[in-house]
Batch of 4 targets.
Target 1
Amino acid sequence: MAAWVVSADRPGSVERAELPVPAPAPGELLVRVRACGVCRTDLHVRDHDLLPHRERVVPGHEAVGEVVAMGRDVTGPPGAGALVGIPWLRGTCGACPYCTSGRENLCLSSVHTGWDADGGYAAYATVPADYAYEMPAGYPAEELAPLLCAGIIGYRALRRADLPAEGRLGIYGFGASGHLTAQLALAEGATVHVLTRSPAAQALALELGAASARDARTGPPEPLDSAILFAPVGSLVPVALEALGSGGTLAIAGIHLSDIPPLDYQRHLFRERTVRSVTANTREDGRAFLASAAQHRLRPTLSPYDFADADTALDDVAAGRVHGVAVLRMPGPAGR
């Protein structure tokens, strides 16, 4: 089958490869991939910012496709023919204090698609049945793909930000996660202010219903109840904190962040402002978000790429040339 793999000896590059179609292990599904989102975490794997866990791994953890085979011990659902999503979280121990207290996203033994195991930049991929998502109806596969990471992480970040009912939310950075989270927050009754330097992203924010769209250094037109930092820019942490009103919460949603400058207690933290990080997600987060996506028709802004151009898609994401979400389109039933 056609696939892309992370180069073992050249950080920052991926290579075309022909690999055998994987056989599903016990408890796994074999999925024919129809579309796969291109996530910034794929860049961290490609560039070895996340140290390789597997040589020449196939990246991609926003894969959508049909179940074509099931390993032993899979009883379904989802069964053969079901449209499923293959997400970042691939497995946890199920027995540690984090797993047994509903915080499996913090499991120290967790494994991840496109890092520990081959992912969706391929014609076929496997996924443990217990970690696959059944996808909502009414969306094409290309629009479903970014929901699996950009959407789910945005959902968890929104919950971590403790946004009150009809509250004022600031979103710093308006890429894949930001523009999906804004739509969900608006559907739930929030006032959304978008802080981004990109004129195209500002225009998209206003088109989607944001109350304002400005450069982050300018700040929102009113104090915020909550904020989410999606941009991996540590210097925006004090900027976002200063924009919060009393008792506000900042959730930092990236897996990687540049250095945070020193904070001034009075300006940035006093009056019970809170800073929280966001680490991956639980399966319950994913199920809850996809249920919300079924209820509120989200409209991902897509930049589609042919599967043969996955390397270009990654370069464009790295350079900030993607409008909305980059998604790889598989060329046919066999991905060839």
Target 2
Amino acid sequence: MTDKPLSGQLTLVTGASRGIGAATALALAEAGAHVVLTARTTGGLEDIEDRIHQSGGTATIAPMDLTQPDSVARLAQAIGERWQKLDILVLNAAMLGSLSAIPAIDMKEMTKVLTLNVSAQAAMLVSLDPVLRAAPAARIIGITSSVGRQPRAYWGVYGASKAAFETLLASYGEELRNLTQARVAILDPGATRTKMRERAYPGEDPASVKPPETVAERIATLARDGFEVNHFERIG
């Protein structure tokens, strides 16, 4: 019997070159899963892939821009042809954008934020739906933010994108509820030591907030143990 609870399972982690995504990829690989790593930064992905291999795990990198629907479709096709199923999907990639008052919104930047944080996530679900349904009990875990549920001054664009992202994921979860064993979870990591957090709070001492590994451990636990449909939780 293997001591790797996710042995034989395939996972896909977006935004896997750094922060929560990188830590999650490492944690899932440690638990025995084969991890497909996606991000725009090839060098960062190669670094995480090397760390996984050095620790005895397995991974495949797929450098790509999630805002390009054709790239997402090609990735889904490749997964279907090589593995036929996808057991765990972690939707972590996101863009913060500028924090500004609503009247000062840069509409071009807002379009970019919504494209990555909402439209690209929808494209992932559309393209990966067949391989998720082909898994015995797929787990889809989306990373959100408290501003998606609790509006905050100057966070309107990012908060709106996360509110839409949550609705999209929860709707998908409801559609899967009675048709498959696939389940959707939405996870708010809370204050975490990431580049995005550093941009949002430039004067904050990074040591005062938890490391990405804490969030990754919880994601790995959810992936291992499963959860009820449309599970939501926040890590303090």
Target 3
Amino acid sequence: MELQSNYALIDNVNIHYVSAGPTKNKALVGSTLLFLHGFPEYWQTWQAQLDYFCTDHHVIAPDLPGYNLSGKPEDVSFYEIPNLIEFFAKFIRAVSPSKKVYLVAHDWGGAIAWPLAAFYPQYIEKLIILNAAHPSTFTREMINNPIQREKSAYIHQLISAGAEHLLADNNYKFLREKILVASTPAIFTDEEINNYQQAWQQPDAINGMLQYYRAMPQLAANANSHHEKESKDNPAQVSDLSKMRIPKIRINLPTLILWGENDQAFVNENLSGIEEYVPDCRIERFCDATHWLTHEKSTEINSAIAHFINE
């Protein structure tokens, strides 16, 4: 597969993306698949999917704003979800002006994709989510489930004053050993880790990656006294549970959720009652997988997505 490296200027922000597909063979008019990565990834986390789907489809995988080769706006308000939704609606119009896309998203990419599908369904054919909690069920679990609050406690480290040093110190040890934790150490090869490190080393990339967490609308206070100061330093973001409100994000598109049940960031209860918000929803669970499905279950993921989009 030959990937083309491109840039799209959206709202004065240069977004780097790679693309491939049957563009040279006019007899093939494949669908367009758009892939949105999460933290602390970049476009190449989708390599297995790009390789698989480019034969019959157009595939597009951007670096999110703030990541790798994409522009890195300094104003934290840029990374607020309402702005990101509008931003990626414009990106879809730019890269796929004549057809809807199949939107595939993981982690923070999913946090954008859920409301994007809710508010801009005219640009999306179907939605595929990999281990990204729906914002409504996630907020519900943050309020009611102490295990979810415990799993989310790491976010307080990421919004602390020393977060950039924490992530960059000792050759990105925190990212390598605390975040990229898969079912077995061999899942992330040395080559993949080196590729990730090159993305993290891009100017201002660590700060850009952290901006998403700084712009989170609601975060439960951390009961762990070790993080008490960090929580108090972010009063606009950290909320008492009694003040947290569950957003009503309803998706009326066919949706496939692929879910590793050993996710270090999300409790499986995030899937409970999701039909209230996503009526046309199918869930495929992987009991032996973690948050990093694209690395652990690439063959199964490709098969599930192919079946779903071809129905």
Target 4
Amino acid sequence: MPLEVGLWRVDGAEPVRVATQRMPLEDRLERLIEADPTILGRPLLVIGRQVQTPFGKVVDLLGVDGEGTLHVLELKRDRTPRDVVAQILDYGSWVQGLTNDEVREIHAEYVRKRGTGEAFDGAFADRFGVSPPEELNTAHTLTVVASEMDPATERIVTYLSAGYGVPLNVLFFRYFEDGDHHYLARTWLIDEVIAAPPSGGAKSRGKQEPWNGQDWYVAFGEDTVRNWDDARHHGFVSAGGGKQYSRNLQNLQPGARIFTHIPTAGYVGVGIVMGKAEPFDEAELTVDGELRPLSSLELRGTYQHDFPQDDPEDRREWIVPVSWEAAVPRDQAFWKKDLFANQNTACKLRSRHTIEEVSLHFKIDK
């Protein structure tokens, strides 16, 4: 059973309990949640209200959290408690199959209907302070919003959640009036600490944005080993110090396009890979029409890693030659909070928003 929430006014000599009232309109509660989802107790970005499903039903509210988990919120309204639980389980069967593109389209339709708001990436960054994860909807939760629930339905929800791991819970709101003042208080049927974790639903397929087969993200970590001015001037990117850093860089193949990002600074270059990765001591670059060893050039970085001689790990710095379409000094790096960034040295760049924004900024073709 949920904890009962009471409210007392204590500005006089004796405490005066404020009586619980029936919420005048549940539609008002829906609007309040839409306006400020934090009243649910967690940061959420609302991506849809009254979302039409393919089977003719309508989801009251659909949101996403900072991990990319989808949250289905269904108000009880005048339906029987059992009916609303059955309905939200049906919604869960639909939501688990939504692809990355479909999630974004639901948000785009929501913005169009409201006539205001940013595109998904910008709205996500405004809400959570980071760009969206590469995968959306790898999990989902189901929440019934109600002012009351009969004991039988409480048992059903607890049974499904605790016994079978269904990510289902009930959020109770209590509505209070005290003169001209109106208050809401909330409590969960099942403590969120012990509630079932979000459902993974249908894994992988379509959860990521589609990759265009060409564009890659490269993180260029500047330090005493490597220097962006060297890479920009001579045409290369590099990584090393261990296989976990160089392995991903070695996935880059000639003809790939890379969007190069300096962590904590921003995007500094876009270019075409001109050859396969090679260790620094073996790498050659074309300079003034002549193929020269990279080690023979004037460089600011050392491109050497200081490790014991008997260390079996490949600590070498690996070099990938690049023909830059655009490259700027570090202090001219381009960054917005809704752009993609990742700790990996190199990975497929799926964020169309990032590709479009960086391409536009550097005035290159998408």
